[in-house]
Amino acid sequence: MNTQIQPSFVSDNSFLGGQKTAVLITLLAIVLILGIYHETIESIVAIWNRSETYAHGYLIVPFCIYMIWKKRPVLTSVDYRPGYVPLLILAGLGAGWLMAAAASVQVAEQYALVAMIPIIVWAILGWNVFSTIIFPLAYLLFAVPFGEVFIPPLIDFTADFTVNALQFVGMPVYREGSFFSIPSGNWSVVEACSGVRYLIASVTLGTLYAYLTYRSVTRRFVFIVCSILVPIIANGMRAFLIVMTGHLSGMRLAVGVDHLIYGWVFFGLVMLLLFWLGSFWREDHLPVVSDRDLAESDQASSTVPIKTTLGMGVLVVAVAAVWPVYLHYLNNKTDIRPIPEISITDPSGKWKIDPTQFSDWMPGYVGFSRQFIGHFQHENQHIGLYITYYRNQQQTGKLISTGNVLVAEKNSGWRNISGDTRKIALGATELSVNENVLHAASDHLLIWRWFWLIDQETDSSYRGKVIQAVNRILGKGDDGAEIMVAAAYEHNPEEAVSVLREFIADMKPVITESLQVVQSESTRN
Questions:
Q1: Which domains are assigned to the chain?
Q2: Half-sphere exposure at residue 416, Cβ-oriented, CA atoms within 13 angstroms
């Protein structure tokens, strides 16, 4: 009988040893790949360090390790079998990272890299392991600093909610964009009031709470949805209460930093209420191991030879490393040609250079290579033309960036009231532009703007990023410019539409030709 037990004992040790070796190979592959993509990792950590909104990123990895550790009884009972299908997904993520890096879309780079980690686990350890710890692996995505894209719509929602609530209680309100006035004073919904911090914190904690507290997929989904909706609505209520507090106190309370403190206190109470209500349907007292897991644990597990696992690890690293190598090759082809001055004149003589500046407004750009600012007049019509040109774009200076704004300074007196898109008929062609309305104390501007990207034009920042990435990957370079034309009006923005359309119809060919000359002209020795 002893001779029957001994071989089984040896086999189990051999299997456990094979498991541990496979896990070590996987960890080594992850470390090597993160080292290869170290600049992307450094960009994530840098944002954690400088922004309180994303400081929770330091906690995500420990949370994931803890959740994976809790799964170890199941992990020791499933098959560890490498798979080749994940290599295709890994290659796709690498290509996505390359596109993002070529277009300087940092958040997309970060997501692509972090998403590689679960796929590496799937490729080396197999589907059974991957599916067992899929949530902890997916939770790693919360480490990526993301959420700024939601700030504009959150500002709009908060402003809508606050103004509607004030009108509901009978308060007279005058509104321009995110700025509004009530009899006791003026208010505005800015980035700090958007509630994006509350939303990020709520979704991060709510998702973890749902996973640890519930077993039902439906309950988890419902709670996560609540963790998204509740902070958005609560932030609207917070803004309304702050305005009312300021109004009722004669603008002595909740008009400075104290309203941010009130906001976090209010948010904390709302989240406690949400978690307390969610606890009534908790299922964490139920067994963690599912019936499928129990069935698998009763079966004899097997593993593949170490050489196979090691070979897959080498293949995974090779597939992931191709993309940074190609990016390094592109970076070594940096265009060092000096950029000539941009010159725009009307050869027909219709639009004459106006030596006077009809408006003191100026857009705010960061890190541009060249800029043209000109004012034109035809009869009693006045137009401002602003062209900002970029080459060899980096994170600190790029054409399509949230750092480039229409109103650069809060105390400039200008406010961005609204934004939309408009299609302009230019003979047989059509141009799509972004349209913005700017107000100052006594001036009003209508602005049309679009991007020029070597041989294509677009009003979409997303499409513009894709075009830039493709141009750079194909070796065309990353030259690009944003073109703005501005005209003043008195009462209605439509007053400026005809003059803007006429100027673009007359001058767009000249502008395009000038930019093409700048892009193609090389240094004369």
A1: 2-146+302-331 (no CATH), 149-281 (no CATH), 352-520 (3.40.1000)
A2: 20
Alpha helix locations (H) across 51-84?
57-70, 72-75
Angstrom CA distances, 297 to 7, 72, 399, stand at 20, 11, 56
- 500 contacts 447 by C-beta, under 8 angstroms: no
Calculate ∠ Cα 426-382-387, nearest 5°.
65
Q: What value, to the nearest 5°, has the Cα angle with vertex 431 and ends 427 and 437?
A: 120
Residues 391-450 pLDDT 10s:
988 888 899 988 899 987 666 788 888 889 999 988 888 999 999 999 988 899 999 999
pLDDT band at 255 (very low <50, low <70, confident <90, very high): low
* Residue 486 φ/ψ, nearest 5 degrees: -130, 145
Q: What is the pLDDT of residues 56-77, one digit of tens each?
A: 999 999 999 999 998 988 888 8
For residue 34, count other CB atoms closer than 10 A to its CB. 16
Among 87, 38, 61, CA closest to 315: 87
Q: The tokens 């034309």 sit on which residue?
A: 485
Q: Read off the DSSP letter of residue 180.
A: E
Find tokens 């890994």 and name the residue: 90
Torsion sign, CA atoms 239, 241, 244, 249: negative
List alpha helices for 71-216, DSSP H: 72-75, 85-102, 106-125, 127-132, 134-139, 151-168, 196-213
CA–CA separation, 303 and 279 (whole Å) = 40
Question: Within a 10 A sphere around the Cβ of 30, how many other Cβ atoms?
Answer: 19
Classify residue 340 by its DSSP letter.
P
**How much is the CA Rg of the chain, to the nearest whole Å?**
29
Q: Are 458 and 467 in contact (CB under 8 A)?
A: yes
* CA nearest neighbour of 277 among 328, 211, 210: 210
Rounded Cα distance, 239 and 244, in Å: 9
The predicted pLDDT at position 266 comes to: 79
What pLDDT is attached to residue 189? Answer: 85
CA distance 263 to 158: 13
What is this structure's pTM? 0.82
The whole-angstrom separation of Cα 366 and Cα 231 is 33
The helix (H) or strand (E) run that includes residue 520 is helix 497-520
